[in-house]
Each structure stands twice: as C-alpha cells, then as structure tokens.
Amino acid sequence: MESMAILAVWLIGLFGLIGVVMAAVAQLILRDTMEYDKAFTWQTHKHNWDRE
C-alpha cells in the first residue's frame, strides 16, 4: 500500500511539472507571436489599410 502512495505522489508531481512547462511554453508562444505581429505585420501592411 505504501508503494501505491509513493507512485501516486510521483505521478502527481510529474504531471504537475509537465503542466507548468506546457503553460510556460504556451505563454511564450502567445507573447512572441503578438510581439512579432505588432512589430512586422501591422507596420508593414499599414499602408494597405489606409486605402480602404
């Protein structure tokens, strides 16, 4: 019974660590994508929007 408790603690810790890493990567992707869009796409194609 003790080994099952140890296994459960390890699994909870492992999935918690994976969740933290996935959240950090998702946040990094969202922030970098928005910064790229602001710096390049919106600036480059701004003149096309002014014509409409």
TrEMBL record:
Q: What is this protein called?
A: Uncharacterized protein
- Which species is this UniProt entry from? Cohnella nanjingensis
Organism phylogeny:
Bacteria, Bacillati, Bacillota, Bacilli, Bacillales
